[in-house]
Amino acid sequence: PAVPPQVPYQPSSPRQVANTLALLRGRAGKTVDLGSGDGRLVLEAYKQGLRPALGYELNPWLLCLANYRAWRAGYHGKISFLKKDLWKVNLSDCHNVIVFLAPSVKPPLASKLLAELPDDARVVAGRYPFPSWSPSSTLGQGLDQVWAYDIKEVRREVQGRAQQSQV
Ligand SMILES: C[S@@+](CC[C@H](N)C(=O)[O-])C[C@H]1O[C@@H](n2cnc3c(N)ncnc32)[C@H](O)[C@@H]1O
User: Fold this and answer.
1) What residue's CA is closest to ligand 1, atom 26?
2) Looking at residues 81-85, what average pLDDT do you find?
3) Pairing of strands 146-150, 80-82
4) Which of 34, 44, 129, 158 could be cross-linked to 86 through a Cys-Cys bond (beta carbons 3.0 to 4.6 Å apart)?
């Protein structure tokens, strides 16, 4: 979009972090948190073996905090936090994408993810699901609920809907 909606900082709860990582268990490959805040999800992803693990964040204070937390945990130089606009990074080599963002960004973000991610990618969304995608699994309740989407399945679903609307 020309002017992407703004997303305020609100850190994930310990339960949200645990649920997110549970939905990424057994997976591998480049893992990113879009809007990584203080880096808590990226840190836990790295600990779980998801590598490389990195976060994109625009707020310089949060970037500083994330780097400090990584250093304190002994992961300095192993995980990266980059000052990049999530709308401008190319996601074509990302296999696991974590999205804890406001509902208003979900529709434009859904288009970006569908256009760029590889077929075997998994997207885990916290707090709010993607309104027009069917999750392959979900965990937790209320504010702690997280949803996992397998991009191959989502593409099939979206293409199916497009074909149906043509007949
Ligand atoms: C709801 S917070 C989630 C933080 C972290 N992922 C967590 O779960 O603890 C969303 C974060 O996205 C960041 N953000 C918002 N718009 C962004 C953009 N265009 N590019 C990069 N980061 C962005 C905000 O600064 C904020 O830290």
Assistant:
1) 9
2) 97
3) unpaired
4) 34
Distance of CA 7 to the CA centre of its chain: 14
- Give the domain CATH number at 128: 3.40.50.150
Confidence band for 62, pLDDT divided at 50, 70 and 90:
very high
Q: Is 144 in the pocket of ligand 1 (CB under 6 A)?
A: no
How distant, in Å, are the alpha carbons of 1, 59, 132, 136, 167 from that of 64?
28, 9, 35, 35, 53
Residue nearest to atom 16 of ligand 1 (CA): 7
Task: Give the range among 11-20, 115-124, 157-166 with minimum mean pLDDT.
Answer: 157-166
Structural domains of the chain, count:
1
Q: Quote the domain boundaries for residue 93.
A: 14-166
pLDDT score for 7: 81
Whether 2 is covered by a domain: the verdict is no
Give yes or no for a contact between 145 and 139, defined as CB atoms under 8 angstroms apart.
yes
Pocket probe mutation, ligand 1, options 12, 17, 38, 57, max atoms within 8 Å of Cβ: 57
Q: Is residue 126 part of a domain?
A: yes
Q: Looking at the domain assignment, is residue 7 inside a domain? A: no
Q: How many CB atoms lie within 10 A of CB 132?
A: 12
Query: pTM higher than 0.85 for the full model?
Result: yes
